[in-house]
Amino acid sequence: MKLWHGRFAKSADKSTDEFNASISFDQRLFRQDIRGSIAHCRMLARQGIIPREDAEQIEAGLCGILSDAEAGRIAFDAGMEDIHMGIEGLLTERIGPAGKKLHTARSRNDQVALDLRLYLKDEISSINGSLKTLIGALLGMASENQDVAMPGYTHLQRAQPVTFAFHMLAYCQMFLRDIGRFKDCRSRMDQLPLGAGALSGTPYRTDREYLRAELGFAGICANAMDAVSDRDFALEFLSAASIAMMHLSRFCEELILWSSSEFSFIEMDDGFSTGSSIMPQKKNPDVAELIRGKTGRVYGDLAALLTIMKGLPLAYNKDMQEDKPPIFDAADTLKDCLRIFTEMVSSIKINAPNMENAARKGFLNATDAADYLVEKGVAFRDCHEIIGRIVLRCIEKGQGIEDLSLEELRQFSEHFGEDIYGRIDIRSCISAKKSEGSASFESVAKQIEAFEEILEGI
Question: Does the predicted TM-score (pTM) go above 0.90?
Answer without folding.
Answer: yes
